[in-house]
Amino acid sequence: MKRRLLLLSLTALLTINVFAHAGHKHVAGTIAAFSATEIVVKTDAGNTTVPLSASTRYYHGSGTSHEAKPEELRSGMRVVVHPGANGRAAEVHIP
Amino acid sequence: MRKAIAGVLLILVLIGMFMAVRTLRYGFSAHDEPTAIEAVAARSMRHLAVPSDLRGMKNPVALTPEVLAEARAHFADHCANCHGNDGRGKTEMGAHLYPRATDLARSETQSLSDGELFATIENGVRLSGMPGFGNGTASSGYASWTLVHFIRHLPQITPDELKEMESLNPVSPAERKEEQDEELFLQGDETTTAAPLPHGSAHH
């Protein structure tokens, strides 16, 4: 019984860690699809969908000094998405 | 008259109870936008927090290109993490603070007096993410006054200045390499060695 409780506690802790970490992973790949509300990034691991929001910022290059516009997104374009703590895209970087 | 007062009190008690129940049930989060009441209260507190002798004070440090360059570097190193190099507050940190990091370039901020900006930098703002950077020394005061000049300059900041500031932002060696790898990836480089970026994947 004690062992089960220990395993359950460990599983819960690991699950929390994965969720906490996932919010900060950068997603790099090519744009598979996009809309006003989300962007689908094609990666080797499959497609990853990241929600967009009104506060999502768009940039040319990896820095933040050259702003881009959402209208500049194109399917097949290389992209790096920085999700924010809420899981929505904080920054979208395109060439 | 008594009935009217009792009615108002009853409404206030009911609103208080509703808010208490709502908070107990749903909690609260920094992701929410501050309510209008909180925004007004925060602005009032910030106003009251400024010593009266500073409110109308003009910047005593003369504005020169050297002073502006010094302040720009200082801002990039100490302030941009929350406010961003452009002062707009659209950074991962600033956009998730409660209240959000102030947009320093907008007219509401620019309309504050030099002294009010100085006091905010020196003393910080209670119940917000703004630390008090001053330590009461002349050098601290000088640095804060130069930052006031830079804040005034923010609405006219140029892309070249922003580019220069990027190189001055505090980043760890790992972050710097990550940004370089992302740049190479975005430019179509297939030989970027930092796995797993070249072929598209997720990394921290």
Outline the secondary-structure elements.
The complex is a heterodimer of chains A (95) and B (204).
Chain A: H1 2-22, E1 26-34, E2 38-43, E3 46-51, E4 57-60, E5 78-83, E6 89-94
Parallel strand pairs in A: 4-6
Antiparallel strand pairs in A: 1-2, 1-5, 2-3, 5-6
Chain B: H1 2-26, H2 36-49, H3 52-55, H4 65-78, H5 80-83, H6 107-110, H7 114-123, H8 138-153, H9 159-166, H10 173-186, E1 201-203
Helix pairs in contact in B: 4-8, 7-8
CATH topology of chain A: OB fold (Dihydrolipoamide Acetyltransferase, E2P)
Can you write the helix and strand succession of chain A as a string?
A: HEEEEEE
- Percent in helix of chain B: 55-70%
The helix-and-strand class of chain B reads mainly alpha
Helix count from the secondary structure assignment of chain B? 10
CATH class designation of chain A: Mainly Beta
Q: In one word, what is the shape of chain B?
A: flat
Provide a compact summary of the structure.
The complex is a heterodimer of chains A (95) and B (204). Chain A has 95 residues and is α+β, with helices and mostly antiparallel strands. Chain A has one helix at 2-22; strands at residues 26-34, 38-43, 46-51, 57-60, 78-83, 89-94.
Polypeptide structure, described:
The complex is a heterodimer of chains A (95) and B (204). Chain A is globular. Chain A has a six-stranded mixed beta sheet with strand order 3-2-1-5-6-4, with no helix packed on it. Chain A is 22% helix and 39% strand. Chain A has one helix spanning 2-22, and strands at 26-34, 38-43, 46-51, 57-60, 78-83, 89-94. The longest helix of chain A is centred in the N-terminal third of the chain and has 21 residues, at 2-22. In chain A, a hairpin with a 3-residue loop joins β1 (26-34) and β2. With 95 residues, chain A is α+β, with helices and mostly antiparallel strands. Chain A has a single domain, classed as OB fold (Dihydrolipoamide Acetyltransferase, E2P) (Beta Barrel), CATH 2.40.50. The N and C termini of chain A lie far apart (56 Å). Chain B has 204 residues and is mainly alpha-helical. Chain B is built from ten helices and one strand. Chain B has helices spanning 2-26, 36-49, 52-55, 65-78, 80-83, 107-110, 114-123, 138-153, 159-166, 173-186, and one strand spanning 201-203. The model of chain B is unreliable at 193-204 (pLDDT under 50). The chains are: A alpha+beta (95), B mainly alpha (204).
